[in-house]
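Entry type: protein chain
Record version: 2
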Amino acid sequence: MGSSGKNLEKLNISTSLLNQAVAVTCGILIPRMLLGAFGSEAYGISVSITQFLSYISLLEGGIGGVARAELYTPLAEKDKDRVSGVYHAEKRFFYHISIIFVLYSLALGLFYPDIAHVTLFSRAYVFGLVMVIGLSTLAQYMGGLTNLTLIVADQHVYINNIILVITTILNTALLALLIYLHCTFLLVKLGSSLVFLVRPVLYGIYVKRHYSIRKRTKEKVELKQKWTGLGQHIAYFLHTNTDVMVLTFFADPQTVAVYAVYNMVVSSIRAFTESFAGGMEALFGKLLAEGNKQQLVYEFKKYSLLLACASFVLFGCTGILILSFVRLYTSGITDADYFRPQFAIILVLAEAANCIAFPSASLPVAANELKETRWGAYGEAAINIGLSCLLVQVNPLAGVALGTLAATVFRGIYYIRYSTEKILSLSTLKTLLSAGSVLGLLYLVVRGGQRLLQNASIHNFFQWAVYGLAAFFVIGLMGYLFYRAVMGAMKKGRQA
């Protein structure tokens, strides 16, 4: 890979890390501001409306992944006609989704007060909230997602990251200003939606200036794997929403709240960890289109090593520190038991396994082999739902976490086996043993760290940060030395 490619890779990763840092920081600040200004009920209503509006994403059918897979080869070959065809095919699809979304939003606005038994706001006020919150999503369907797919497929992930950072900071600042001016809740949410309208506009400007999208093409492109994409998208949606759904049916709201607090931390760390793979899938797609298998194998090993080390360090620190963080974060709340060490370890291992298998799961998408790997997604969803429903009866939190862990391990094994055997011609056993070793060592580090902190006096976030820095230094040094050693051996082997 040339120097320009390496610079692009570094730019994608660094901006991804910056984006996640900003997203996590603002994601902690915004709920605090809204809760303090408008109370739990108003904030809960807005969260619930957002959740209801997100269900429409089932109709997206994973079309973004299908379109990206279709774009890698024509982008590498500079086939402008084919790129334009895929672009317009995706745009037509999202245009139809936007019409359905408008109708769904209108229905939700009319019936949500009855569904959620809202008494805080009038029916007209709730209708306005639904319309305002749905505004930014509609803008994405009307062009934002199509342009974003093209930008990401062309390895320019950094463009999206920069736009996300700017709009996230702007949104947080505007919310703080509107709250300071004592604006109504509806006006505050409107301000937030208007900021996010900037994103699709900026995507459109970038695509117009940097790509020659033709209005008419020689052939009308059909996204052949859209139904496979739909199945995998539904499977992914079910997998990521299974825990809350199962706990809602089989446990109590307090248990759901405990899960939400722990998941807020762990999912943020997962997103931050995956930022180290910024632009990875697009790079895989480009190398596959060029037929450069030797470089592909090297890049796969490099990203696998990077994700494994990042997962070990970040989830190691998270597993050790999460109990004391949750204790401080929920200080004064006595209606639920938030000290759940067993649940915390299982959840940390599940998300770490997801990150470690991330390169293997990205390869089939880059190779446009969604149909061939569909049972990986279907099996993951089935295992998660089935096991969670069984184990929740024994121990609600640990039960759903074990279901997630088992499903994630299955997914990792499936994609590692497929990618190493069918695409890379590498040893599956060696790759699986490496991934399993990282998870095993992570478990031992977390268990040992939790025992060391068991009797520590942590009464405020400053003390917690001191212990956090110490843990990060020790585990980070272990991860860094391992990365340097293995990466050095890989480079020497490549030069030999």
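Comment: The chain has a mean pLDDT of 83.
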